[in-house]
Amino acid sequence: MNIEDQLSNLLDDREFQEIDARFRRFNLFEAVGAVRAELRHSNFLAFLLSPSRPHGLGVDILTRLLRAFVAKLPREKRPIGILDLLVGNLDAAIVERERNNIDIFIEVKPLKLAVVIENKVDSLVSEGQLVRYRQFVQHRFPDWRKLFVLLTPDGERPDDPNYDDPEYLTFSYSALADLIAKYAEERHSAISSDIALILDNYVDTLRRFIVEDAELQEKARQLYFRYKEAFDFILTIKPPPENALDPVRAVIEESAQFAFDRRAPRLIRFVPAEWESLQELNSCPKDRWTRTGRSLLFELSAHRSSDRININLVLGPAGPEFREYLYSWASKNLSVFVGLVKPMGLRTSTIYGHDLLTAAAAQEMDEEQKAGALLDEWRKFTELHLPMLKASVDEAVRLWREKDRLSQ
Questions:
Q1: pTM of the complete model
Q2: Quick check: helix, strand or coil at residue 265?
Q3: Quick check: bond before 54 cis, omega within 30?
Q4: What's the confidence (pLDDT) of residue 15?
């Protein structure tokens, strides 16, 4: 069968038409650019969970989600029983956004229950973030029952020490989608048509853009093998995927003055090549941060929700004496180490930060203009900022070694 016949059969295939119709279907969250925006997901979820908001759902979603959280814990570790949730007065629940920077904070005074939900779609937890939230709640509500939840796409903890707080249970967006879909199906005759449509749109958004839809993937796999030649032909003429960091990635790859540490679609870690020979900058335990053992590196990050691109110089969890020395050195040279974050973090600390492309500027640009602006700022960084940073770090290492030699 030739390619033209295969393409024709593919377009006539009912399963292909079903998938095509699903992706062509209007989705409110996609229309407003909220498919992977953490702030908007947190806003909408807080809206659904709040009994006082005008959605007509009462405490239904809140009750089901709290039950699902508690059910994930062993009985001996549950701060509250499921029966207590069912008979308790959840109508009095107060659901807040960004209380003490917590994504979603739920206060149920009649049950003396405080719930923290930290929502992560694309971004990572910053150093000490989970601990700070837990300590805030423990201080503010010392004799209350407490529940700490980390909401992620797959319900797994990323390979990052900042996620290690054992007090947080993990919950997946997949389970959240199933929970809301089941509720909407069971209560379809009791909820208004507009709310039903919004819930359906939200579940569709989660399953298409946040989590892996096993059924959809299986259909797509079967279609591929059924029309393999047609798909392979399409892929040969498909334009390469756009990646916000590709312009700079290519420059770094072609330059002998840099060494890569980690490459991901929206994150590039690298160091100046000469830093690889400095033992003080390569003294991080490989199981605590980066697997290369580097303890000082640059991070180039692209923010999916805003198109902002920034570069940071990050000090990792190396030997405490040199780490404190280098952070103190940077703190005393703020004309070089602009954007230094205070205080010094327990594991990682940003000692330099600079936007190569701001979110505001990106809004006014098309993709070609963004790439051009990014390359211009990268050139300025490598010509102006980078030499000063390298010289200052090298001087700090030299003085540290001299101090160490004199003390012996």
A1: 0.55
A2: coil
A3: no
A4: 80
Q: Considering only CA atoms, which of 320, 307, 163 is closest in space to residue 245?
A: 307
Residue 300, C-beta contacts closer than 8 angstroms, at least 6 positions apart: 245, 248, 267, 268, 269, 270, 309, 310, 311, 356
Residues β-bridged to residue 108: 113
Give the up-direction half-sphere exposure of residue 328: CA atoms within 13 A in the CB hemisphere.
Answer: 8
Q: What is the pLDDT of residue 31?
A: 65
pLDDT band of 240, cuts 50, 70, 90: very low
Residue 204 has pLDDT above 90, yes or no: no
d(CA 294, CA 152): 28
* In the chain, domain spans: 3-214, 246-406
* Max Cα distance, the chain (Å): 81
What is the DSSP pairing of strand 168-172 with strand 258-264?
unpaired
Question: Higher confidence at residue 336 or residue 160?
Answer: 336
Q: How far is CA 199 from CA 57, 64, 241, in A?
A: 11, 15, 31
pLDDT of amino acid 59? 92
pLDDT tens, position by position, 321-331:
999 999 999 99
**How buried is 371 (Cβ within 10 angstroms: 0-12 exposed, 13-18 middle, 19+ buried)?**
middle
Q: Is 226 helix (H, G, I), strand (E, B) or coil?
A: helix
SS3 332: coil
Nearest CA to 175 among 158, 193, 159, 152? 152
Closest CA to 315 of 354, 348, 277, 284: 348
The string of DSSP codes covering 273-293 is GGGGG-GGGS---TTTS-TT-
Alpha carbon separation from 380 to 37, 363, 375, 387 (Å, rounded): 30, 21, 9, 11
Tell me the C-alpha distance between 224 and 222, whole Å.
5
Contacts of 406 (CB under 8 A, 6+ apart): none
Query: Which pLDDT score, from 0 to 100, does residue 96 have?
Result: 93
pLDDT attached to residue 222: 82
